[in-house]
Design brief:
This protein is of the alpha+beta class and about 450 residues long. The chain is built from ten helices and ten strands. β5 and β6 form a beta hairpin. It is globular, with a radius of gyration of 26 Å. The two termini are about 50 Å apart.
């Protein structure tokens, strides 16, 4: 078995408490005696209210800062509060840009810091700052691919999910060749952040194709998805679903990343980025699937079709459409359905400039993607899944969100028809034709 990537640096998560952030820093890296010592309440105008911060200064350096009061829009202010650790690290507001989308609240925080009493008695003028577009010049060196296999994929379907470690939800989908359980043709691991995750942005958010990987990559030098992809490749290439306990494992080592036998499974060293997720979720869930395969088996069939979307000239737009359908081969009913549109792995491949920032993400899992139809893309697809599970037609979808224009925005929250539905219908036709040929689905009205 090929050993997985060994990272010697600790990847332990660091929790940041919003509103109360403390930095243990190196005093030699900031100017000495910049501010007057003490605990100071400082205020400045944000967008909707006065923002008041409580700042503690020792030996001229900011050692603690927290929000005392504000009446800003809560979601925007939470974004603006991301500046607080930067203020601590910088021992002041100088050179810090506003947070995009929360510019006024950001400037309120920075101006309040500017008003801290200086040790030399000076009162520098505050100059408002704008937000820097990090996506335009970001040099993100980590690489991975989230592109699905193009064309048709079908086989016997196995699935397990369970919560682990404080409530994260892990899930594993395995597909084996029809009537050949020894040939693994598809493996996919995903994880959603726990509902009480310390960063509100990632609560209940799937990690595989969301911004989570970029956030983690910037902090840790590795992305969660890289580990999942490595394990999945191992499972498919070796048709391997179980991992033997490592006889040399020393439980006293705990989570010491410098030790090669940190994980409890033979042939696996340290898995970068998601070692806890792999050890506590993916491996146990896959073992359950292995037991199911060798026990009662399955009568669920998996069908997937993925296709690159092209423009009028036949050029790839940088978006790939993917539809998955799981059907019970005995009842011939759909038990699960999922449609998604997945952005290219590199910005340059995405033709729509406004969508380049979503590279290596999907419309369903992205936190920040804005669906032009004025309703959440995930809401649309969750409704599709429910519709099909309840026996609805693959093609008669006019009762689903954003399948048509709906009245006045002021009166009803106007939505437009999403072009994603037309892309979905094209994939649905392909899978439906195949499933009918295989005799695993009842006739659907068109």
């Amino acid at each position: 078995m090929k050993s997985l990537i060994l990272f010697k640096k600790s990847l332990l998560s660091t929790a940041v408490l919003v509103g109360t952030m403390t930095l243990v820093g190196c005093a030699s890296s900031v100017p000495a005696g910049k501010y007057a010592d003490g605990i100071h309440d400082v205020s400045a105008k944000g967008k909707k209210s006065v923002i008041t911060l409580t700042v503690e200064v020792k030996n001229g350096h900011i050692v603690d800062v927290k929000t005392k009061s504000h009446k800003e829009t809560e979601s925007l202010y939470l974004n603006a509060e991301r500046l607080l650790p930067k203020v601590l690290a910088n021992n002041g507001h100088e050179g810090i840009d506003a947070v995009s989308g929360a510019t006024y609240s950001s400037n309120g925080i920075l101006e309040a810091i500017n008003s801290l009493p200086r040790a030399n008695g000076s009162k520098p003028e505050f100059v408002a700052v704008g937000a820097k577009d990090d996506s335009a010049d970001e040099d993100f060196k980590l690489k991975w691919s989230i592109q699905p296999q193009l064309g048709l994929l079908k086989g016997d379907y196995y699935y397990q999910e369970a919560r682990f470690r404080q409530g994260h939800m892990g899930s594993v989908a395995i597909v084996t060749e029809l009537n050949n359980t020894n040939n693994v043709i598809f493996a996919e691991f995903n994880e959603s952040g726990r509902p009480n995750y310390y960063t509100r942005l990632y609560q209940d958010v799937p990690k595989r194709m969301s911004e989570y990987n970029f956030s983690m990559g910037k902090k840790k030098g590795t992305a969660w998805v890289q580990s999942a992809l490595t394990m999945e490749k191992l499972m498919v290439e070796q048709d391997k679903l179980t991992f033997e306990l490592n006889p040399d494992f020393d439980p006293t080592l705990g989570n010491k990343l410098k030790e090669p036998n940190r994980l409890k499974y033979a042939g696996i060293d340290v898995i970068a980025g998601a070692s806890n997720s792999i050890q506590q979720s993916m491996v146990p869930l896959t073992a359950k699937i292995h037991a199911q395969i060798n026990g009662e088996g399955t009568h669920e069939r998996f069908y997937q079709h993925a296709e690159k979307l092209v423009d009028a000239k036949g050029n790839w737009t940088g978006v790939t459409a993917m539809l998955r359908i799981v059907v019970d081969s005995q009842t011939k009913q759909i038990t699960k359905a999922h449609y998604d549109e997945i952005f290219a792995d590199e910005k340059a491949q995405i033709k729509d400039a406004s969508q380049k920032k979503f590279y290596r993400q999907s419309k369903y899992e992205s936190i920040n993607y804005v669906e032009p139809a004025r309703i959440g893309f995930n809401v649309m697809i969750d409704a599709l899944n429910s519709h099909l599970q309840q026996g609805g037609s693959l093609f008669l979808i006019d009762d689903l969100p954003a399948t048509g224009d709906t009245g006045s925005y002021a009166a009803t929250g106007f939505t437009k028809r999403s072009n994603a539905w037309d892309n979905y219908l094209a994939q649905a036709e392909i899978l439906y034709t195949q499933m009918r040929q295989d005799g695993v689905i009842v006739k659907h009205s068109k």
